[in-house]
């Protein structure tokens, strides 16, 4: 019997949730400014995440017990995440959901590159082949 790693299950669930999020956002963007949608979505997500945090962790002090380095990287991640969402929802408003999603998921290519440069991760043959296939798919989509 093949054992599926837990990280894979969560990553797949994340991908499925992201797909539904994109479809519902595309429907919701018909009459609304993309920044408005992004803002409202962020507020709702913050509330849901905070509720799950309280239920799971139960101690709000965990939010304040981080090192300065931790805060810096959380802030940087939040800034780039917000910029990513703004760009994504603007593209989604004016483009086809399937095309926008494919391009958005090309972040995989940048993650592979940056993880090699910044995190010193190895470039495996699987990652190299997947990256090449993703790049070819992007070219086919744009041409």
Plain-language structure description:
- 78% of the residues lie in helices and 0% in strands.
- The chain is mainly alpha-helical and 143 residues long.
- The protein has 2 domains: 6-95, no CATH class; 106-143, no CATH class.
- It is globular and about 50 Å long.
- The mean pLDDT is 89.
Strand percentage, roughly?
Answer: under 5%
Q: Mind describing the biggest β-sheet?
A: none
- Please work out how many helical segments DSSP would assign: 6
Report helical residue fraction: over 70%
Alpha carbon gap, first and last residue? 42 Å
Average pLDDT, rounded to a whole number, is 89
Poorly predicted parts: none
Estimated structural class:
mainly alpha
Shape: globular
As for the number of domains, it is 2
Quantity of strands, as a count = 0
**SSE run:** HHHHHH
| Rg measurement, Å | 18 Å
Summarize the structure.
With about 140 residues, the chain is mainly α.
Tell me the layout of helices and strands.
Layout: H1 6-28, H2 34-56, H3 68-94, H4 97-105, H5 107-117, H6 125-142
Structural features:
143 residues, mainly alpha
């Amino acid at each position: 019997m093949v054992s599926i790693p837990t990280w894979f299950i969560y990553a797949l669930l994340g991908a499925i949730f992201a797909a539904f999020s994109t479809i519902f956002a595309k429907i919701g963007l018909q009459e609304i400014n993309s920044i408005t949608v992004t803002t409202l979505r962020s507020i709702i997500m913050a509330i849901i995440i905070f509720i799950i945090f309280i239920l799971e962790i139960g101690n709000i002090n965990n939010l304040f017990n981080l090192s300065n380095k931790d805060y810096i990287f959380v802030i940087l991640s939040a800034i780039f995440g917000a910029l990513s969402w703004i760009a994504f929802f603007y593209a989604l408003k004016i483009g086809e959901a399937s095309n926008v999603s494919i391009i958005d998921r090309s972040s995989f290519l940048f993650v592979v590159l940056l993880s090699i440069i910044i995190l010193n991760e190895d470039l495996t043959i699987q990652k190299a082949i997947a990256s090449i296939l993703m790049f070819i798919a992007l070219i086919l989509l744009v041409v």
